[in-house]
Amino acid sequence: EWNRVNLNGITAFLHPDNTGPDTTSHRLPSLAIPIHYNLYIKPYLNISDNNLRYSIFEGEVNITIKIIQTTDRIVLHKRFIFVRYPITLSMPGISVIRTIFDDERDFFTIIFNQTLSINTEFTINILYIGELRNDTYGFYLSSYVRSTDKVRRYLVASQMEPISARRALPCFDEPALKATYKIIVEHEQQYRAWTNMPIESTQNQSNGWTKTQFEKSVPMSSYLLALVVADFECLTQNNTGRYKNITTNVCAQSEKKNDLYYALEVATKNMEDFEQQFQVNYPISKVDHIAVPDFDAGAMENFGCILYRETRLFYNNRTSTSINKQEVALVIAHELAHQWFGDLVSPSWWDDLWLNEGFAKWMEFVYTDKICPEWDLYEQFIANRWLAVMQNDAISFSHPVNMKIIHNEQLTSIFDAITYSKGSSLLRMMRNIMGSNTFNSGISKYLSGHIYSTATQNDLWQVLGEQMFEDNIQLPSNTSLADIMSTWTDQMGYPYVEIIRDYCQNLIKISQKQFLFDSEAQPSKSPHNYIWSIPLKIKSSSSLETDLIWFSKPNMNITISIQSNEWILANPDLLGFFRTNYDGENWRKIIQQLKTDHKKFSVVERAGLIDDALNLARPNILPASLVLELLEYSHLEDSYIVWERILSGLQYIEQMIASSSSGLYLYERFRSYMVDLILPIYNKLGWKDNSSTDRWLDTLHRDMIISTACRYDLDHCIQRAQELFEQWFNSPSNNTIEANQRRVVYCTSIRLGDRARFQFLLREYQASSDPQEKARIQTALTCTRDIELIRYLLHIHINSEQNVIRRQDVLGGIRSICRNLIAETECWTFVHARWTQLFRDYGGSLSFAELIKDVTGRFNTLLQLEEFERFSEQTTDKGAAEAEFKASIERSRGNSQWVSKSKPNLEEWFLNRTLAIRLPLDWFPSTYQLHFNVFLQSTYPTNEEPNTTFTGHTRIRIRCTRPTNELRIHMKQLRLSYAILTRLGKNNNLISDWTIVISSEVLLCRLRERCIKDEEYEFESAYTAELDREMAGFYLSRYNVTNTTTGKIITHNIGATHMQ
Question: What average pLDDT does this structure show over 997-1010?
């Protein structure tokens, strides 16, 4: 017996080529594969307990297994499952003699009394009890309160991806190990049950329970298993698929049934489009879309039974915003695309997750655009995915799109923007290279060739490469599509291409280098040495565009027939996934073109130019002053996606100077600059949506600009927001604020309001049953500037016993607090102190790593960097946030470099160039007291110059119209003796120092504290000056009295700007 159990292991250990069994790999050993699961589930929902946080379910699984390597054991996965012995097998004489559980890898090893040969098939029966936790993984517990009776109702939902099917049943929990499923759910009769397949039969029991049996499933991966047991109601619509009728069901709690009609409409249209495009039929006769009150992800693509957060499926004409409507359509398209990309064809291993998520992300834009072409989703993709993800990928601790997954802890970290947005961006780049017809034909062949199976990225390259050959689309000689695309998917990051022109010889020198925010970072080794195969085109101001050039080495020179007075633009319409830098002269030509006729560049090109410039300035590749000069054309710009990139890029500058210990005055100048920058577009768009004239993007643009204007304290914006909020505050039962305006109105009123308004909005949050309204209010509460309220918000987020914030919303709420500039120190202290609890409760969440990014995003001092490095060293439990800890250290180091190198240049630029002739509207004068002394004799000899000096003393009564740390007053050619600002009734001088900005003709006074809105102040100054001789201001005029004497007149001309 001892030999039978141990001899194979000892032999393997002693073999020269094998040092023993692998105890570190988290991959199952290749001993057996599943063929079919018969699964029985019986969940217990104690509906009498109004604070239930834990329950159980009974389970029984019969797994048909095929042996693929001679063995005396099989290895399954299980977690939080309690097996009820004995485990039985269908083969006579074969029994289980021992089980071993490896809790680190979730391996459940079942050892038999005999060795089984290859191709042996048998069924193993396991009875077990599972936990119904409320942590949103596996089979889990959720609940909601119906507004009619205030009774909490419980339900079971599921989330298996990536590795939580093992919490629902003992199984082979890897994506390649597909099998069919036959499921029976026993539940109390007041509930209904949903799984991946249609219901086959229901049988009511005498004890008040019902057995619901479902049809046998198609082959699918374990992470796609779905189960919902709830008292939900559905909207249903049948539509004709390619081969049969498909029923679309959209389900939720009964009170929200009317908010499902838009989702039903979108889902039905998408199913028709996907089948027609992919030419691969959807294999199930129904698809369910179910809104779950507690759901960690946005949605989950379970085969035939898609689960959503409520905010991603509900749309209400009165309370939902335009963004809400767009998100519903995009998420539904994303999840339906997954029915093909991920469900029918699954990744062989999680390395290729990007094939699932990249395709689904790209297809959500493509096919929602078919339904709603007026939304300009291709443009939105550029701003919100393509350009946005470039910031995530500009650190040396990023990861390749095709990331090698070894340990379970890595899995949650790859469900990130690199996988989704960069993956989809690379698909767009491929489509750009080969054309949409070739791309779509190749994708159809890729799907049909791997149906019910798995694929790797190499399978995709093979099919698309063959399609390119068939369509006569040429690649460089001796180069395959796999050679090209592996440089983009198998190494992290992306290049910036530098274009240096020789204007005399029409020569262009081109180089490529990895773009990193931290110029001193040392990325890990790359299989391609951080050289990419770059598809490159160049166009000029005369509209000449070159053929496609493949740039696959560090440097190259090309000759191009472009006049020296023309600008050139590389990467027109963002053909490739890279940034572009030019020599200074070409940048100046581009800037001049933007000022002259910015529409010479497409919207996508303008967005790319601005995003490149703003981000190239972060590692000081470009001077920040050139970037701000580039933005001088912005008063002509009306594109939403261009403005989105402008504001996104400038937000980084704001964060750095606002967080800098010596940046207070620079920050105030930046805020005034931002008001001047957005004022033209703010005035153009206004506050009111106009359905008869607005484009869809105008609505999104208006929301973004109003939010920005109020954040920078633009008077009209603040006044309008507070007026609307006060109307609601004074009449709580009648909220007339338009849905698109609520976010900015709520946030502004909480930021500038008192605790009474905070408490009012918190009560509205607790009372609301609208998930989208609750999300808006939760975010608005985090806008407060009251430190005590910030601490209170952090407390109610982390203390679940108070039952204020749903578990699914906790991390998002804390992250929103941490993005509040006022809360930076408080949030860092909180996360530092509560890390153990945060890791225990939320370490498995897909967004957990983002918490670290939001906490440290503004760190830019050596002190902050050292403190965070110590915290990182002392913290052993990081889980999915391991890489983000390293990335945050690098990001903070890059921030520190930016502040030290760019801040002085910015200070000079803002002082000398951005103080416009128009003063900011921070102060309003009411009265002037003026006293002048002049020193002149009535006549003087003609051959002598008169004394032209005068002195002045001025008192100006002024009112603070909005809080500011600065006072600006026009002044020209006056020699200031002193300047004093006092609050009426007070004696202390509030001016700490002052500067005369000659180029802007402004006296800039820096204050020790912000002025108080609507309070009266007095500004006093004394100065000397010379009488002007150019008939401006106070000037001296002469006339002849006699031949030997000249008379004089002192008079004034204060028209235009001469008063100063």
Answer: 79
Residues in a beta bridge with 231: none
Average pLDDT, rounded, for the chain: 91
In sequence order, the 6+-apart residues with CB closer than 8 A to the CB of 153 are 47, 143, 144, 145, 146, 231, 253
Structure tokens at 940: 């003087």
Distance CA 526, CA 755 (A): 54
Q: Above 60 in pLDDT, residue 16?
A: no
Is pLDDT of 909 > 90?
no
Tally of CB atoms within 10 A around 985: 8
Choosing from 335, 605, 654, 826, the catalytic residue is 335
Residue type present at position 17: D
Q: Is 773 a catalytic residue?
A: no
Domains of the chain: 25-229 (2.60.40.1730), 232-339 (1.10.390.10), 380-492 (1.10.390.10), 786-906 (1.25.50.20), 923-1057 (2.60.40.1730)
Type of residue at 73 = R
* Distance (Å, whole) CA 967 – CA 667: 14
Number of residues that this document lists for the chain: 1060
Handedness of CA 796, 801, 805, 807 (dihedral sign): positive
Give me the residue label for tokens 């983002």.
850
Contact call for residues 955 and 929 (beta carbons, < 8 A): yes
Q: Minimal CA–CA distance to 716: which of 681, 741, 687, 676?
A: 687
Q: pLDDT higher for 41 or 661?
A: 41
Contacts of 284 (CB under 8 A, 6+ apart): 196, 197, 198, 218, 246, 303, 304
E strand or H helix at 261: helix 261-278
Residue 527: asked if its preceding bond is cis (omega within 30°), the reply is: no
Question: Token digits for 476?
Answer: 């460089």
Pairing of strands 245-252, 233-240: antiparallel
pLDDT digits (tens, 9 = 90+) for 411-434: 888 999 999 999 999 999 999 999
At 942-957, the pLDDT tens digits run 556 666 788 999 999 9
β-pair type (345-347, 453-455): parallel
> First CA to last CA across the chain, in angstroms?
104
b vs e for 467-484, b when ≥16 Cβ sit within 10 Å of the residue's Cβ?
bbeeeeeebeeeeebbbb
Decide: residue 361, CB within 10 A, 0-12 exposed, 13-18 middle, 19+ buried.
buried
Q: For residue 102, which amino acid is it?
A: D
Q: Which residues contact 987 (CB under 8 A, 6 or more apart)?
A: none
**Buried (b) or exposed (e) across 578-617, using 16+ Cβ within 10 A?**
bbbbbbeebbebbbebbeeebeebebbbbbbbbbbbbbbb
How many angstroms separate the CA atoms of 686 and 663, rounded?
Answer: 32
The two three-digit tokens of residue 364, written as one number: 């959500």
What integer is the mean pLDDT of 672-691? 90
**pTM assigned to the model:** 0.86
Confidence label for 243 from pLDDT (cuts 50, 70 and 90): very low
Q: What is the share, in percent, of the chain residues with pLDDT greater than 90?
A: 74
Strand blocks (E) in 264-387: 286-292, 299-300, 305-309, 345-347
Neighbouring-strand partners of residue 559:
507
Write a three-state SS string for 946-976. CCCEEEEEEEEEEEECCCCCEEEEECCCCEE
For 75, the enclosing helix (H) or strand (E) is: strand 71-77
Output the pLDDT for position 195. 99
Instruction: Look up residue 979 and give its amino acid.
Output: A
How many angstroms separate the Cα of 171 from the Cα of each of 189, 215, 225, 518?
29, 20, 11, 45
Do residues 757 and 749 make contact, with C-beta atoms less than 8 angstroms apart? yes
Whole-angstrom Cα distance, residue 452 to residue 178? 8
Q: What is the mean pLDDT of residues 725-739?
A: 96
Q: Sign of the CA dihedral 445, 449, 451, 455?
A: negative
User: Beta-carbon neighbour count of residue 352 at 10 Å?
Assistant: 24
